[in-house]
Amino acid sequence: MFQIDSRDSTPIYAQIERALRAAIASGRLKIGDQLPTVREMAVDLRVNANTVARVYSDLERQGVLETRRGVGTFISASPAKARSPNEHQRRLRAFATRVLADAAAAGFTADEVIGQLKSHREEGE
């Protein structure tokens, strides 16, 4: 399904979580898809089963996965919902940076852009 990079300084559990979220966000994994068991995933990735169990448990608490006792673990989140909150903030920050850079290049100030956005939103309400 994905690889773990032992040279990466990111903890293994974080790499697994990031990879699962990315697979859901990209559409490679869809709502209802079944994941390998904790043991299967651990063997495939050559990591401790407790590490995989931690990731599954964390993602279940966050509503990304659903575990059905005796059946398995399934994807329960849409691509948009699977993105981590940090990823959402990172993307929003990058978007705002691009907008402000484009505005500055066109000769607009940040205050002018914000005023126009507020006006546009009020017109739509």
Quick overview of this protein structure:
The protein is mostly helical and 125 residues long. The chain contains 6 helices and 2 strands; from the N terminus they run αααββααα.
List keywords for this structure.
Arc Repressor Mutant, subunit A; 2 domains; mainly alpha; single chain; 6 helices
Please explain how this structure is put together.
The protein is mainly alpha-helical and 125 residues long. Helices cover 60% and strands 6% of the residues. The chain has two domains: 12-79, Orthogonal Bundle (Arc Repressor Mutant, subunit A), CATH 1.10.10; 85-124. A hairpin with a 3-residue loop joins strand 1 and strand 2. The longest helix is centred in the C-terminal third of the chain and has 21 residues, at 85-105.
Secondary-structure blueprint:
Elements lengths: L11 H14 L12 H8 L3 H13 L3 E4 L3 E4 L3 H4 L2 H21 L4 H15 L1
Antiparallel strand pairs: 1-2
Helix pairs in contact: 1-3, 2-3
Give the helices and strands as they follow along the chain.
Answer: HHHEEHHH
Number of strands: 2
CATH class of the largest domain: Mainly Alpha
Q: Which fold does the CATH topology of the largest domain refer to?
A: Arc Repressor Mutant, subunit A
Inertia-based shape: elongated
- CATH architecture level-2 label of the largest domain: Orthogonal Bundle
**Tally of helical segments:** 6
- Number of domains as seen in the coordinates: 2
Radius of gyration: 20 Å
Low-confidence stretches: none
Mean pLDDT metric: 90
> Widest sheet: strand order?
1-2
Please estimate the helix content: 55-70%
Class per helix and strand makeup: mainly alpha
The CATH superfamily of the largest domain is Winged helix-like DNA-binding domain superfamily/Winged helix DNA-binding domain
